[in-house]
Write a structure and sequence with these properties.
It is built from 19 helices and twelve strands. The chain is α/β, with parallel strands linked by helices. Strands 5-12-11-6-10-7-9-8 form an eight-stranded mixed sheet, with helices on both faces. Strands 2-3-1-4 form a four-stranded antiparallel sheet. A hairpin with a 2-residue loop joins β8 and β9. α2 runs antiparallel to α7. The protein is rod-shaped and about 130 Å long. The structure holds adenosine-5'-diphosphate and magnesium ion (MG).
């Protein structure tokens, strides 16, 4: 895995990583405060050989001690020692358990034996260490004596063990070690957080950039609609929001759509996506509104008969609309509503059989009639993958727009939707990359007027397009005039 991928994952999930680090440090601190302190006390013994005064004998005695001292160290934890210490100090512990808290080591090349005892009480640690040291020297001397039967003093031992350093009560515990626990907690938290972030990044197949959408679907991205927290309250980017980055992005979609249609004349455009909540209704509503603003007579049809939302966006009546016409209850003119110059056909009452209704010949006829009356017919639809409603309907359209929600829709869903449209023989005009993260500079208005910026310059927006302008040319194309 590349370092860049790891750093990107960390940057994206830094709050989670930080949370893991804090939890790790808290766990380290908890372990420190909750664990019982353990103290260690140490006594030291010196092994000497009982020898005469001449150098030769001294030399032999020293070699003897060096050879035996390692074996003596193993005797420190023997039962002969521990049992005696337990009874003499009146300890509430078993000899074997005590043995587990005693360590003895004889540094190579020396005749010294260090005895270390661990205990939860500092004074007791020292008492045990001293008791062990004295009992141990007795045991060894008795073992080495020529007459091992007690009393030991009567026998003659060739070695003598003297306590050179008695144990004293330690001032600080050896465990817990707060710095070590905190450092371990921090490291564990960091590793866990970073691991989870990298795993999430690896498993995340959502599309983060418009280029990724094109790479996956081979569709041009006609516009990237920035995420705007005002959007749920104000679905239509008009009025006070008319100059927002979101409104500009919808105008950009209109312009690009007009260019995407060169040579043909799709008037009926279905706006769809793979899954619910990707921004289909927002796109359909704002595109239709933007076309109307651009002087193109437009009709918006709410053909999402599962979750209709167009009426709400304009504050219109929902209960009279498309389905009334489809079942022959009303004529188009009876139920068509108007919102600021835009004609809107809301869903009407929700039928039990939306799939059949939307794929019916009556629906095809209705769209043909609308296409005859309007320069553009924008159809909001149900998502492609969970239900079959849009599959039949899309075949009546001249073109489709595929909405892809940034960082949310899994790549395989997007591809499945694009392939479904292709299989149906529907001409997909392009993708709309919805709720994309706003580049930081765009939030400050930098890049305004810069054609290379992510949110391109809005097309000039005169109330009526002048002849020869981009808009009027686009309008002419929509009307099917070729110039
Ligand atoms: N550009 C945007 N920024 C923030 N929220 C958005 C944006 N576009 C749409 N939304 C919100 O996302 C949700 C789904 O949008 P909607 O257009 O209803 O999707 P769909 O029709 O695909 O189900 C709605 O709550 C809507 O307000
Ligand atoms: Mg919708």
């Amino acid at each position: 895995m590349e370092l860049r991928t790891i750093l990107k994952a960390l940057a994206r999930s830094w709050p989670a990583v930080l949370a893991c680090i804090l939890v790790g440090v808290a766990a380290g601190w908890g372990a420190t405060t909750l664990s019982t302190p353990v103290y260690q006390a140490r006594a030291q013994l010196f092994v000497s050989a009982q020898s005469g005064g001449d150098t030769m004998e001294l030399q032999q005695g020293n070699s003897f001690s060096l050879a035996r001292v390692q074996s003596y160290a193993s005797i420190v934890t023997s039962r002969q020692v521990t049992r005696h210490v337990v009874s003499s100090l009146g300890l509430d512990t078993k000899p074997d358990e005590l043995a587990g808290r005693i360590t003895a080591e004889a540094p190579i090349g020396t005749v010294l034996i260090n005895i270390t005892v661990s205990d939860t009480e500092r004074r007791r640690a020292a008492d045990i260490a001293n008791a062990v040291a004295y009992r141990f020297s007795d045991v060894v001397e008795r073992l080495e004596s020529l007459d091992p039967a007690p009393p030991a003093s009567a026998a003659k031992s060739p070695v003598k063990l003297s306590v050179t350093q008695t144990a004293s009560a330690p001032s600080a515990p050896v465990s817990p070690r707060p710095a070590l626990n905190l450092a371990a907690g921090l490291l564990a938290g960091l590793l866990l957080g970073a691991g989870a972030a990298v795993l999430r990044e690896t498993l995340d197949t959502t599309l983060k950039t418009a280029d990724a959408v094109t790479a996956l679907t081979s569709l041009p991205v006609l516009s990237s609609i920035p995420f705007d927290k005002e959007s749920p309250q104000q679905p239509l980017a008009s009025g006070a929001a008319a100059h927002s980055a979101r409104a500009e992005a919808y105008r950009h979609l209109r312009t690009n759509l007009q260019f995407a249609q060169i040579g043909e004349r799709p008037r009926i455009i279905v706006v769809t996506s793979s899954l619910p909540g990707e921004g289909k209704t927002s796109t359909a509503v704002n595109l239709a509104f933007s076309l109307t603003e651009g002087g193109i007579s437009t009709c918006l049809v709410d053909a999402d008969l599962r979750s209709p939302a167009v009426a709400h966006a304009f504050g219109l009546v929902r209960d009279a609309g498309l389905t009334n016409v489809l079942i022959g209850q009303a004529r188009i003119g009876d139920v068509m509503q108007s919102a600021g110059g835009l004609s809107v056909l809301t869903s009407g009452p929700l039928p039990p059989n939306p799939t059949e209704l939307l794929a019916s010949e009556r629906m095809a006829e209705l769209l043909r009639d609308l296409a005859a009356d309007y320069e553009a017919v924008i159809v909001d639809t149900a998502p492609l993958l969970p239900v079959a409603d849009t599959a039949g309907l899309a075949t009546f359209a001249h073109g489709a727009l595929l909405v892809v929600r940034a960082g949310k829709t899994p790549g395989d869903r997007v591809r499945a939707a694009a392939e479904a449209l292709h299989t149906l023989g529907v001409r997909t005009l392009g993708a709309v990359f919805s709720m994309s993260p706003m580049p930081r500079y765009a939030a400050y208005g930098y890049g305004y007027g810069d054609s290379s910026a992510a949110w391109p310059t809005p097309a000039p927006m005169p109330p009526r397009p002048r002849t020869g302008s981009v808009l009027s040319r686009g309008a002419a194309l929509l009307r099917g005039e070729t110039k």
